Amino acid sequence: MAASILRLHVHDCFVQGCDASILLDDSPSIISEKNVLPNKGSVRGYEVIEAAKYEVEKLCPGVVSCADVLTVATHSEEETQPRLAFF
Asked: Can you tell me which residues bind Ca(2+) (predicted)?
């Protein structure tokens, strides 16, 4: 899952900064980044970020942004991955 979360973070931050726009759902006026053709079915990990945001909102509603949750989740997931040592 770490690679999927990292990919979400990169896709979110690459063009216009870390604004969590990749996490937005469709509305009557927009097709979200989540559902545009290049991302549909290929970007994964939304459920992890949504679950984390839900838990954070229970503790401190309206304080932590989705972009912050995505950044911390990316860091946390990467910390759990094994590292290769190059000598």
From this structure: 12, 15, 17, 19, 21, 33
Domain boundaries, the chain: 2-79
pLDDT for 47-76, tens place per residue? Answer: 989 999 999 999 999 999 989 998 888 877
Find out whether 25 is annotated in a ligand binding site.
no
DSSP for 23-47 reads: GPPPBTTB--GGGSTTTTTT---HH
User: What is the value of pTM for the model shown?
Assistant: 0.73
Tell whether 21 is in a known binding site: yes
| Residue 33, marked binder | yes
Residue, of 5 and 77, whose pLDDT is higher: 5
Alpha-carbon distance of 13 to 18, in angstroms, equals: 4
